[in-house]
Amino acid sequence: MTQPRILVADDSEVIREVLTAFLDNLGYRVDTAADGQAALDAFRSQRHDLLITDLQMPRLEGLPLLKLVKAVEPDVAVIILTGHATLETAVEALRLGAYDYLLKPIEDMEAFGRLVARALKHHALVNENKRLLDELRQANSRLGAEVAERTRELQAAYESLRSLDKLKNDFVSVVSHELRTPLTSMRGSLGLLQGGVVGELSEEAQGLVGIAMQNCERLVRLVTDLLDLEKITAGHGAFRIALLDWPAVVRQAIDSSRGFVQSYGVDFELEAPAALRVRGDEDRLIQVLSNLLFNAAKFSPRGSVVTVSTRLLADSWVRTSVRDRGPGIPEHFRERIFQRFAQADMGEDRPAEGSGLGLAISREIVEHLGGRIGFDAAQGAGTVFWFDLPGASESSTQ
């Protein structure tokens, strides 16, 4: 480690020699100057860690020297020595940046040595703080540049994804519209064949037409779901908001769902208080309920009962729950449950059915109405899908 360098400026040769010998014995590197101007020249040619200067010297006195030295090196430590001390000069020296002020003659050299050590330590700490601040500024500058670069990259990636998402949505919309008309025509033609318009079909032909009709119906539902989801996410779906008798709406959804879930061999039960009001779009909310009821029936074993319940929460929201008796949602699938085209594995005994869009559509509808949707599941113990809507009263306004 490099030893500190000290400059001693005094017009007394004896004092210069005594201080030089003492400081040199302490291991410091010492330079001397016989007057203020020589001290300033020495300081300009060689940086020092500490300046020990007399107050009164030829050519340039101690206070002007202190001021000039501080202009060259603001952090240098300075100790003023004088045999003509006044309060005014002491205050002025400290104001100009002197570390301390010492009277001559120096009677306690050990105390002087400790003062020198403290001044040098102060100088080292100031320099270390300055170095750390410089490093911090540089790190902040690098971090700021890196953040700006990453922000630009993320913005570019976002724009790219948004562009791709628009292309995808446009593609889905165009394909869906283009498929709807021929599918409707195909369904009508198959219906005519099943109805015997062109004559009675053989049993084998009837079976084939029936399969074709089922596939056609499935494609029609898929196209309808795609168009519905595209309209809602784009903000083009019309919502007719009204005050709803919620238990009556839920009961209507259950009754209308019994037909298309009859093949699953499950039944529904409703647990609902007599009077609950919500504000929303009746048709859209029946669509949400139908999706949840269809999923619950699809995953429940034959002969089981799907429980539908409504209740008022503590925050005055109305929660509607649909509980199935199925195997539960696999852990790895839960994060994707509300994504488009997400379908859980139903096992080997049941083929995958539906479009995989029901829950995505349900989430869009519920969130559009200011609600929230989720599920509570434990694999092997069934699943409860629920959605919450803000409660309303007869006097509430739209």
Question: What can you tell me about this protein's structure?
Answer:
With 398 residues, the chain is an alpha/beta fold. It has three domains: 5-107, 3-Layer(aba) Sandwich (Rossmann fold); 160-233, Signal transduction histidine kinase, dimerisation/phosphotransfer (DHp) domain (Helix Hairpins), CATH 1.10.287.130; 242-390, Histidine kinase-like ATPase, C-terminal domain (Heat Shock Protein 90), CATH 3.30.565.10. The chain has nine helices and twelve strands. It has helices at residues 13-25, 36-45, 62-72, 87-95, 109-194, 203-233, 246-257, 282-299, 358-368; strands at 5-9, 29-33, 50-54, 77-82, 100-103, 242-245, 267-271, 277-280, 305-312, 317-323, 372-377, 383-390. The strands form three sheets. The protein has a five-stranded parallel β-sheet, sandwiched between helices. Helix 1 links the parallel strand 1 and strand 2 (29-33). Helix 6 (203-233) runs parallel beside helix 9 (358-368) and helix 8 (282-299) packs antiparallel against helix 9 (358-368). The mean pLDDT is 83.
Top keywords for this entry?
five-stranded parallel β-sheet; single chain; 3 domains; alpha/beta; Heat Shock Protein 90; Helix Hairpins; Rossmann fold; five-stranded mixed β-sheet; 398 residues; 17% strand
Brief synopsis:
Helix content is 51%, strand content 17%. The chain is α/β, with parallel strands linked by helices and 398 residues long. It has three domains: 5-107, Rossmann fold (3-Layer(aba) Sandwich), CATH 3.40.50; 160-233, Orthogonal Bundle (Helix Hairpins); 242-390, Histidine kinase-like ATPase, C-terminal domain (Heat Shock Protein 90).
